[in-house]
TrEMBL record, chain A:
<dbReference type="InterPro" id="IPR020568">
    <property type="entry name" value="Ribosomal_Su5_D2-typ_SF"/>
</dbReference>
<feature type="domain" description="GHMP kinase N-terminal">
    <location>
        <begin position="91"/>
        <end position="169"/>
    </location>
</feature>
<dbReference type="GO" id="GO:0016301">
    <property type="term" value="F:kinase activity"/>
</dbReference>
<feature type="domain" description="GHMP kinase C-terminal">
    <location>
        <begin position="230"/>
        <end position="292"/>
    </location>
</feature>
<dbReference type="InterPro" id="IPR006204">
    <property type="entry name" value="GHMP_kinase_N_dom"/>
</dbReference>
<keyword id="KW-0547">Nucleotide-binding</keyword>
<dbReference type="InterPro" id="IPR013750">
    <property type="entry name" value="GHMP_kinase_C_dom"/>
</dbReference>
<keyword id="KW-0418">Kinase</keyword>
<dbReference type="InterPro" id="IPR014721">
    <property type="entry name" value="Ribsml_uS5_D2-typ_fold_subgr"/>
</dbReference>
From TrEMBL, chain B:
<dbReference type="InterPro" id="IPR036052">
    <property type="entry name" value="TrpB-like_PALP_sf"/>
</dbReference>
<keyword id="KW-0663">Pyridoxal phosphate</keyword>
<dbReference type="Pfam" id="PF00291">
    <property type="entry name" value="PALP"/>
</dbReference>
<feature type="domain" description="Tryptophan synthase beta chain-like PALP">
    <location>
        <begin position="32"/>
        <end position="280"/>
    </location>
</feature>
<protein>
    <submittedName>
        <fullName>PLP-dependent cysteine synthase family protein</fullName>
    </submittedName>
</protein>
<dbReference type="InterPro" id="IPR001926">
    <property type="entry name" value="TrpB-like_PALP"/>
</dbReference>
<dbReference type="InterPro" id="IPR050214">
    <property type="entry name" value="Cys_Synth/Cystath_Beta-Synth"/>
</dbReference>
Amino acid sequence: MVSGKSAPRGRRSGGGANSTDRQTERRLQVGVGRAMAHHGELLQGVFEGADGKLHRGLITLPLAAQQSTVTFWPGGKGGIRTRPTDRRKAARAAALTLELLGFANVGGDLTIESDIPVGHGYGSSTADVMAAIRAAAAAAGATLRRSTVCRLAVEAEGASDAIAYGDQAVLFAHREGRILEHFGGEYPPLLVVGFRTGGARPIDTLGLPRARYDGQEIEQFRVLRGLASHAIRQQDPRLIGRVATASARISQHHLAKPRFEAVTDLAEAHGACGVQVAHSGTLMGVLFDADEGGVATRTTALAKTLRQAGFKGIVTFAVNVDGVFLQ
Amino acid sequence: MSGEGDFLAAYETPRLARLAPNLFAACFPLMKLLPARFMLERAEATGHLQHGGPVAETTSGTFGLALALLAAVRGFDLTLVSAASLIDDRLRRRLEFLGAIVHIIDDPEGSGAQRERLAQLHTILEDRPETFWPRQYDNPDNRMAYGRLAEWITREIGRVDCLVGCVGSGGSLCGTGGFLREVFPDLTIIAVDTHRSVLFGHAPGRRLLRGLGNSLVPSNLRHEMVDEVHWVGAFPAFASAHRLHHDHALFMGPTSGAAALVAAWYARKHPDAVIFVILPDEGHRYQHTVYDDGWLAALEGWPAAVPDEPETLARIEARGEGEWTRLVWHRKPLATMIGAERGV
């Protein structure tokens, strides 16, 4: 087995290329990797890093029920082929991972099976990339730190999100692939009624222009970060809901969701903690305290109301809750 | 509150004190460092302040001290304009020790000479047009600086239902309150002022309690954010400062006494609400006055008991230094409230 540390890096040189290739092919196995979707963000903005400078960052809302599963079948030369075809970012991510682990110029087949809808802000592309990195690492029999997975994902895709951290809430610099603040815990227990606003037409989420925040918004993000830290430390769904709603309101100035006020009114009428959005996508979600009495009745009632109001793709999912909950 | 690694960044960070089960306080050694640093950094970033200064400001004390500390550390020329009734020899010497040039205007009637100070400042600006004037009363960066305090409050406390703070420039209360209201829209904001300050409609006059109140209305004060205003006279403020020291070992200035008095009353009245109070500076500057029995004994009306509760007024009116009054302000503009007084 080859570990990330002991493996030689980069291309191998010398005349024994053929034998080396045979050797690496023998050492690679079939590898499987998985990564989950997300449902947009609880917070997105710009934040001061340890260097005193501002960085774009976000807190992802994970959606564990939807996943991308990638299988890497090593073999042959001529690069990495994908099925479905032309998933170039996933192929590049696998290649970068194998190169990091000392398997340069390895060929193979990458099978991507995902139930994550494309182009609404669920992070389908990033999930494919993350799953491909994990599949490649598994093929090499290696484990990777989450920070390494994120760095490779940014290299492959130009941006990443925090789903590599799973249920751990972090403030994540998505353009750089690194953590700005580890909140030191998991998400507060939430039930989320998610849906799509606007048309069913997918959008190129990575092609969206970056938001230009003004000074007032930048200072406000400090406060949201502070409150998020408190909410996660205290496992307080109400407070994380406040963070999400305030962040969604700022997002309205940059990528406005239609009928936003109608949704916040519905959220309040159903006793929700707040609303969240995909800052680059069409998703919105209404957040509920999963531990509150009668919460299932209220999420069901809200889902029905949203359906009648014409919203699409309504799904109720849980974050950090015992058991399985998906409607 | 900041990634900056120097001493002054730590010095601008308050300590947390719990004064009652539902009452939290931010105890600042020198709160004005927060807006001073923020305004200077913004000015540098936008090209209004060149490296090395010069900087000039009119100040009643603590904002000048904050600028002087920064001037010493960062190496810029600083000129301060103050009034004789606002600044004592000790503070003046400290400012000069830090390298600041200090102009002091005579104000025998103790008005603070705000207009004369501004006239003097304009002369300085004309002499050296490249001078950066932070304008703490009107520069919106003063309010913006308090995003850091609001972050600190939410990180430490989480939910806040009521914010209590003194008003001089309006920066700390309206800045912090504005940022908090984005997450807590129902936040109650209580302003603490003193009799014969014009901020909430009194006619200007001699004030014994300094460091809050104003003889001009600064644009950083947003009256329409304020739910309730309290006018605390000097004596209840002094006595409350003594009590903070005695009961909580908090050695704070007299404006902190005024704010704590109001906050503790509101906390008793609203046991289910979380109250946060801003205490802007420490007691060292007042050791020879507010904390000196001889100085206090010379004051007519002292000793004074701390009232248990304020007198609720139906209209704007100034009282004596021993009194504590309040008026429900209803988030109204100043002109509306003054107009109502005149029956307009």
